[in-house]
Amino acid sequence: MGFLGERYAIAGVGETDWTRESGRTPLTLAVEAAQDALADAGLVPQEVDGFLSYAEGDSADGLHLASALGAQPNYAAEIVGGGSSAEFLVATAAAAIEAGLCSTVLCYRAMNGRSGRRFGTQESDGFSFEQIYPFSSFFSTQGITSPAQHYALIARRHMHEYGTTTEQLGAVALQFREHAGRNPRAMMHGRPLTMTDYLGAPPIVDPFVLFDCCLETDGAAACIVTSVDRARDLRQTPVSVLGAATRSGGSNVYHYGLPVITEAAGHHLAPRLFEMAGLRPGDVDVAGIYDCFTFTVLIQLEDYGFCEKGEGGAFVEDNRLSLGGALPCNTAGGQLSEAYTHGMNNLIEVVRQLRGDYVGTHRQVAEAEVGLSTGWGGPEVASALLLGARG
């Protein structure tokens, strides 16, 4: 039995162009992405009465977006969830509809992540590590002041324990760049990447080099959640929510306090997620795996059951993440090569693959019926959705 009886669906998706300097406000970006999603679904703003977004002082809130669109909200909220937000927003929208708080919800992420509030800067308009991780005082004194440094230690431990190689990390970067080459909207479209390029890239923090790290992006992305019954009367084939896990944590919010630091929260939520949907990892036809770094893809492939612990590196070899591979993954380029939107672009791409939007082109995953989208709010927190082309 799926999430809330498989009664809810994503009915439309939309986004802006992805840039490094939008020259626009987050509200203007949010309006454009919302209008794109509304047009995709065949709705007008007045038919949307719920607004949910991830914002951390860097976006436009739902009340302002509704006003700009000319809509009347019955339910509006901002959720602080970092990279676990996209899936959390969709599940929360479905729950709000189930509770009778609203009927149709616009979920969105809008930000100037490159030209505006950049992570890691100490200026007043940037994000410090302390703002994002309240517990960072436990390790910032040791020189860990950015996510790259935080996750690099976990990646290096994985390499030490399981023999994961630099080339296996590079395989993720190369595959997603190849997918971006098929996507004209991707920021890295037309910029092919070879293993020689990868191995020669500037180091960021051991073992990560430049191409192990996600992009910084200005832009916005949105999706519309409503009941399956209503979605069936709209423009697009509904993509049903089959299972959902929201902001699930591990046994300790301090990741270095976990018994096994090479595990992430997906390890704990995956069994419940698949049981909810009555599915297994082998049933997934296309995935959007949160890729703030190449390594986070490896660890999630293990934690969601696509391979055994320690085998993530081997799994990504031999083009297994390609469109014709065992698990087509981040097929628009992901956050490493399309855009960084705290996961919303990965979710949108899974929806489009399940709808068959690319049939007849070199971008479509053949016979895609079940999709997985994962969120990563740090190794210790995760959200995920199982989606189905069962509208």
Q: How does this model look, in words?
A:
This protein is α/β, with parallel strands linked by helices and 391 residues long. The chain has a domain at 3-117 and 216-231: 3-Layer(aba) Sandwich (Peroxisomal Thiolase, Chain A, domain 1), CATH 3.40.47. It is built from 14 helices and eleven strands. The chain has a nine-stranded mixed sheet, with helices on both faces. Strands 5-6 form a two-stranded antiparallel sheet. α7 crosses α11. The longest helix has 16 residues, at 26-41. The two termini are 15 Å apart. The mean pLDDT is 92.
Alpha carbon gyration radius:
19 Å
Which bin fits the share of residues in helices? 25-40%
Class derived from helix and strand content: alpha/beta
The total strand number stands at 11
Which outline best applies? globular
CATH class of the domain at 3-117 and 216-231: Alpha Beta
Sheet having the most strands = 9 strands, mixed
| Low-confidence spans | none
Terminal Cα span: 15 Å
Percent of residues in beta strands = 15-25%
CATH architecture of the domain at 3-117 and 216-231: 3-Layer(aba) Sandwich
Helical stretch count?
14
Q: Can you write the helix and strand succession as a string?
A: EHEHEHEHHHHHEEEHEHEHHHHEE
